[in-house]
């Protein structure tokens, strides 16, 4: 039996179990009977509130964020032909972070939706700035250098806003907590802001698996096999930006998911992007959901971004040791 169906089934099962654990575990445990009762409308009012208003939107947001970051990481690594590329390489994450921090400092007045909207605008402005800086050649090297420069500028601006708000303890705490990433207190508004966009971008990305495989042969090799390399690169940048921007907008800055998950998938199932993309989506969703679980028990200081870094950092060091650049 081919390896891929078994791998697909394993990843899908793992994601389903992670989603179920996200629904069941927390300060108030929900056993399967209570979850089923809440779905059918026969559970206690408190169980229905916990399930529908707290756990379910949080789990869906985590699923969406993880899938988006996993797919975006696979795209960036194919685009730059660099295994150390990540979703934030073009400044999308840092632009989204700057937009969100600016929203917190200024006070958007839009309650729940204000911060995500500012974050999405900041992320798309970052990508627009990168493309503008690299408009003459738009080669991967130009884009990479422009992304490094924009990351530095946006990071400096975010740090300035953070230091300027240091005297306002509550404001500074809000900024720091958001910069460390997290999906607690997510609502159905966040689900509708991120979910449909990430789903649409993911669906549009899946048919590009074969052209992404050919891109590994180099621009001339891919072009000789019928790939419109310029159009493909624009498609990959646009879709990766949508995925990363929406994930950052509703979850903050969550590191290492887009870097680590595609590597794990390659080690298990190989480099074929026709399988790598959907498996990275499922793997990213599982990782975010599982890393969110400890934050429910370890206090407010243990954020999702901290957990993913604690998982991703050692893995990257191990990978570099096994495969030195």
Topology overview:
Blueprint: H1 3-24, H2 32-40, H3 45-80, H4 92-106, H5 114-133, H6 140-164, H7 169-179, H8 188-205, H9 209-215, H10 219-224, H11 229-251, H12 257-269, H13 273-295, H14 304-322
Helix pairs in contact: 1-3, 1-13, 2-3, 3-8, 3-11, 3-12, 3-13, 4-5, 4-6, 4-7, 4-11, 5-6, 5-11, 8-11, 9-13, 12-13, 13-14
Molecular structure report:
The mean pLDDT is 86. The longest helix is centred in the first third of the chain and has 36 residues, at 45-80. The chain has 14 helices and no strands. Helix 3 packs across helix 12. The protein starts with a helix and ends with a helix. The chain is mainly α and 325 residues long. The chain has helices at 3-24, 32-40, 45-80, 92-106, 114-133, 140-164, 169-179, 188-205, 209-215, 219-224, 229-251, 257-269, 273-295, 304-322. It is 76% helix and 0% strand. It has a single domain (3-322), classed as ABC transporter involved in vitamin B12 uptake, BtuC.
